[in-house]
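User: Some background: our group keeps a shared notebook of sequences we're curious about, and every so often someone picks one and asks for a predicted structure to add to the entry. Today it's my turn. The entry only has the sequence so far, pasted here. Could you supply the structure so I can complete it?
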Amino acid sequence: MATSQKRLALAIIDFLSKSLSDGTISSEDTESIEIAKSCIADTFHVNPSDQAALKDAIGDQSLLSIYGVYEKLKGKTSTAPMPGASSSKPTTNPPKSSGPTPTTPEAEEFKSQGNKAMQQKDYPKAIDLYTKAITLSPTNPIYLSNRAAAYSASHKHTEACADAELATSADPKYTKAWSRLGLARFVLGDAKGSMEAYQKGIDYEGNGGSEAMKKGYKTAKAKVEEEEKEGGDEEIERAASPREAGGAGAGGGGMPDLAGLASMLGGGGGGGGGGMPDLGALMNNPMFASMAQNMMSNPEALQGLMNNPRLREMAQNFGGGGQGGGMPDISALMSDPSLREAAMNMMGGGGRGAGRGAQQ
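Assistant: Of course. Here's the predicted structure to add to the notebook entry:
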C-alpha cells in the first residue's frame, strides 16, 4: 500500500481523536468514533499510537488546518491588490493567498535535494523531492514554484501552470512564480494569460521589472498581436470569398453552376426515372471535358449554351418530359447543327466561332 495513503489514514485518525477531545464531536459518539478509528487502522495497517509515523504524516499541522488551506485556495477567486498593477484582467484569477505555510528543516532538505536533481537534469527525481517538501509545507511558494519549473522541464505544462498559480496565490510577491506561470501559459497556447502573468511579475518586481520578465512579456505580447492580426485577416478573406459573396456561377470565372446544368439536362426530380446524369461518365467524354474547361474560364459561354432553345427542347424530351429520363444521348445532341457549332465554339475548335476561344 502506498505510503501517502497510510499517512492520510493516520491524519484522519488524528483528526477524529482531536474532534473528540476538543468537543467538536459529542461524548455520546465516543464509542462510534473509536470503532471508526480502529477500522481505519486495521484496514490501512497503521498504528495510531506511533507518534513518529504521525509526525511524518502531518508534521506540526493537522488535517483540519491542511484542509482549511485547500478550501481557501480552491474557493477564492480574487487576487490581493498589487502596487502599480496593470488594468488588464487575467484570463484566470489565481485564488487569494492564505499565506505560505511555515517550512521545516526536513522540507528544506527535500528542496535542496530537488535543486541538485534539477542541476543534474533528473526532472522526475526533482519532482518527487519537491513533492515531499510540499507535503510538509503545502503552500510554500518556493517549493511550488520549483516543482513548476521541474514540470516545465519535463514538458508537463498543465501541471506546471497549476503549481505556478498556487505559488502566486500563496505569495504574490514571489516573482519567480509569475515568470513560471507566464511560461507555462504561453506553451499551453494562452498567450494573453501569459502576457498578464509576466505583467504582474513586472509590477511586483518594481523599477520596470527584470530583463527576463520584460523579455517574456514582450514575446507573449507579440504572439497576442499576431493572433489578433490573423483573426482579422480571416474575416477579410471570408468577406472576399466568391462562395461567400455570390455563389459558384457568378462572375470571375468560378466553377459553373453544374446543378443548373443537371436540371436542364433532365436531373433533379424530373419524374419518370430521371434524375441527375452521371457526371463522371459525362466528363470522360473528351468533347465535354474540353467544354467544361472552357466553361470554367468563361461562364458567359455556359449562359449562352443554356439559352439555346434547341438544347432546352431536347433536354425536356430526355428528362422531365417523362420518357426514360436520365443521361441524354450525346450523338443525338451533336447531330443538331446549331448545338454542334456551340460546342465547337466552347471547345475552341474550328468553324465560324473558332476565333473567339482560340489561343493567340
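Suggested note for the entry: Confidence is low (pLDDT under 50) at residues 76-97, 243-276, 320-325, 349-360. The two ends are 87 Å apart (CA to CA).
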